[in-house]
């Protein structure tokens, strides 16, 4: 039986994407060859790369607006390093918003390059909220934020107006909701949540912000090199990119981001309503900052843990425990998660209530 997979990443993808990707591993486009054994420079794979890059920009409404899309390797974690390398000027500074573990990881890397100003942090409150009152220095080379905090279950619903280039780690909510993406100058996202398997990172970058640092950038870390080589500077992660491409096609065929956002809103509303109604549970993040992708919650009385775990496991639910650093529960309800699975989780919570 297929499980209801609430894992935070790698995570659920549409079933038809799994099937098409599996087929391509066996026989890619009727070629008699596996996707995994053909050259990345073959006509068929070059077409996949081109279409995936085009589709990513199209879905975000960024076609013809001076942006490039890249599919690179190294995870979002490598972008923590690649961003300052490409954007922080030699004696310049960067501004960061500290909203969670991953934001803090990005700050740590930036500090190796230069003056890294943390404009605000919710660390002292265990990252339960998104700071809102802060000032971004006008002379910063860029401002970096994390749109969705996968571990703590908070999400940014507004972004600062600033003249400084805005960089955003959208690893755990890209393609889940409509934003004016042209307000961002650089977006990056590890594929393994809303887009595909682990192994590739989507980077969307406005070309005009590059080439201004006065720094010698090693080729593999230089966004310009990757743009010039059409995301094929070195052998790309063919399987991860092809599967991401299939997911982007699925998204387009199913109405794009706007339709997806409505479904995501409904799923999140259903689950948060139960967390707030059920006397045995409580949410962990500030109500106005609650993530619609990663819903974090606790049992008010930990004595019910064993019983609750037994109930949800019996219903075929998987991947519900919170991140190892915070505990509790985390239901990741990415694009591919059907509302029916969220309903099964709600029923598990109600069954616990009836049983105590
Ligand atoms: N940023 C965010 C918001 C994440 O959720 C994660 C991974 N869960 C990362 C960065 C790190 O990504 P990766 O493991 O792809 O390096």
UniProtKB/TrEMBL annotation:
Positions annotated to bind pyridoxal 5'-phosphate: 76-77, 102, 150, 169, 192, 234-235
EC number: 2.6.1.52
InterPro entries noted in UniProt: Aminotrans_V_dom, Aminotrans_V_PyrdxlP_BS, Pser_aminoTfrase, PyrdxlP-dep_Trfase, PyrdxlP-dep_Trfase_major, PyrdxlP-dep_Trfase_small
Chief localization: cytoplasm
CC cofactor: pyridoxal 5'-phosphate
Transferase in keyword set: yes
GO molecular function: O-phospho-L-serine:2-oxoglutarate aminotransferase activity
Family (UniProt): Belongs to the class-V pyridoxal-phosphate-dependent aminotransferase family. SerC subfamily.
Protein name: Phosphoserine aminotransferase
Taxonomic path: Bacteria, Pseudomonadati, Bacteroidota, Flavobacteriia, Flavobacteriales
């Amino acid at each position: 039986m297929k499980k209801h997979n609430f894992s935070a990443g790698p995570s659920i993808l549409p079933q038809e994407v799994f099937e098409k990707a599996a087929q391509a591993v066996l026989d890619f486009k009727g070629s008699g060859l596996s996707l995994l054994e053909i050259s990345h420079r073959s006509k068929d794979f070059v077409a996949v790369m081109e279409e995936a890059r085009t589709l990513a920009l199209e879905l975000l409404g960024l076609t013809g607006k001076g942006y490039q899309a890249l599919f690179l390797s190294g995870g979002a974690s490598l972008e923590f390093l690649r961003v300052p390398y490409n954007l922080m000027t030699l004696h310049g500074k960067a501004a960061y918003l500290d909203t969670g573990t991953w934001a803090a990881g990005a700050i740590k890397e930036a500090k190796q390059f230069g003056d890294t100003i943390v404009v605000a942090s919710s660390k002292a409150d265990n990252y339960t909220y998104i700071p809102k009152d802060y000032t971004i220095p006008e002379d910063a080379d860029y401002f970096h934020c994390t749109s969705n905090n996968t571990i703590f279950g908070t999400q940014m619903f507004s972004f600062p107006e600033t003249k400084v280039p805005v960089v955003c780690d959208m690893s755990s909510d890209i393609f889940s909701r409509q934003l004016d993406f042209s307000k961002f100058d650089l977006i990056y996202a590890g594929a393994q949540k809303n887009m595909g398997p682990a192994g590739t990172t989507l980077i969307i970058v406005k070309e005009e912000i590059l080439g201004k640092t006065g720094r010698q950038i090693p080729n593999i870390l230089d966004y310009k090199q990757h743009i010039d080589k059409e995301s094929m500077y070195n052998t790309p992660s063919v399987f991860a990119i092809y599967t991401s491409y299939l997911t982007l096609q699925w998204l387009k065929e199913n109405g794009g981001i706007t339709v997806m956002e409505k479904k995501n809103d409904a799923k999140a509303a259903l689950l948060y309503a139960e967390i707030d109604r059920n006397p045995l549970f409580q949410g962990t993040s500030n109500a106005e900052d609650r993530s619609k992708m990663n819903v974090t919650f606790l049992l008010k009385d930990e004595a019910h843990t064993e019983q609750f775990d037994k109930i949800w496991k019996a219903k075929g639910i998987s991947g519900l425990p919170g991140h190892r650093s915070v505990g509790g529960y985390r239901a990741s309800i990415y694009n591919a998660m059907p509302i029916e699975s969220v309903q099964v989780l709600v029923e598990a919570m109600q069954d616990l209530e009836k049983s105590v």
